[in-house]
Amino acid sequence: MMPSSQPDFSPSQFTSSQNAAADSTTPSKMRGASSTMPLTVKQIADAQQSGTGEKGAPFVVDGVETANIRLVGMVNGKAERTTDVSFTLDDGTGRLDFIRWVNDVSDSSETAAIQNGMYVSVIGSLKGLQERKRATAFSIRPITDFNEVTLHFIQCVRMHIENTKLKVGSPARTSSSMGASASNVFSESSTPTSLKSNPAPVTSGASGSNETDLNTQVLNIFREPANIESEHGVHIDEIIKRFKLPENKIREAIVYNVDVGHIYSTIDDFHYKSAYTD
To answer: What is the pLDDT of residues 96-126, one digit of tens each?
Structure first.
């Protein structure tokens, strides 16, 4: 039994219809990846890979491709190494293994505060193959108000209902189409303040730096205070404008920072935000 200071919740009934929803998924119901989906471990266990299930294909929950996921649960089996911290998250519907890469002092501080038996909110991404799902954590935050646990499962229920009520005849939406439409919506008026007030591109010093230095320079832009505070993060076009370098080099640096957990996508495939929030 869980200690009295921790809430005893078993919300598996919230996700019992996940399998039925997955069976009814058709290409016409497929939508593009949303920003951050509130999910349960049971929903993730039932998730299917889109397409033919090839390596790297996104997982689909209720007809929606997952980009970033948010889970709430208790930490178990925490194991620390020099380069990463792994743990198992138990949310009452199942267990899911997470890994959090440790790249700098801020990462170490975040993971040091997490202990076994603690309830946390985790934002991350789901990868791997159908038979072996694995999750990478971008952000781990201790929960101090346990109303947040209840709220999370309410959000999971709402998301499930909304997604399973999509009309079968609705046009398919892909990640690229969502990104293109969002790119038109987010005009200059929504550009983060720091990028408006400091648009000067990086000079020749950046062009002469090695790949590691470029990865760090790109990351530093995402970690500017105004960009951390921005709800949607930074559009990749704004990052490209800051450098006098080929666009593909900047995109490679962004991909690198996503892969190691430094940044994550928000509203679409073009907006990214730092996982470091302190």
So the answer is: 999 998 888 878 888 888 999 999 999 998 8
Cα–Cα dist 9/40, whole Å: 12
Of 218, 205, 204, 221, the residue nearest 248 (C-alpha): 218
Whole-model pTM: value is 0.53
Lowest mean pLDDT among 153-157, 208-212, 221-225: 208-212
**Which positions ≥6 away from 246 have C-beta within 8 Å?**
none
H or E segment at 207?
helix 204-207
Q: List, in order, residues 6 or more apart from 226 with CB less than 8 Å away.
A: 192, 193, 194, 195
Are residues 63 and 45 in contact, defined by beta-carbon separation less than 8 angstroms? no
pLDDT surpassing 70 at residue 273: yes
CATH of the domain at 203: 1.10.10.10
Please state, in angstroms and rounded to a whole number, the distance separating the CA atoms of residues 204 and 206.
Answer: 5
Segments forming the whole domain that contains residue 196: 186-274
Q: Determine the Cα–Cα distance for residues 167 and 109; give it in Å rounded to an integer.
A: 46
CA nearest neighbour of 133 among 242, 43, 209: 43
Q: What element of type H or E holds 195?
A: helix 193-197
121 C-beta neighbours (distance < 10 Å), count: 17
Neighbours of 276 (CB within 10 A): 20
* Domain count across the chain: 2
Is 3 domain-assigned? Answer: no
Other Cβ atoms within 10 Å of 100 Cβ, number: 25
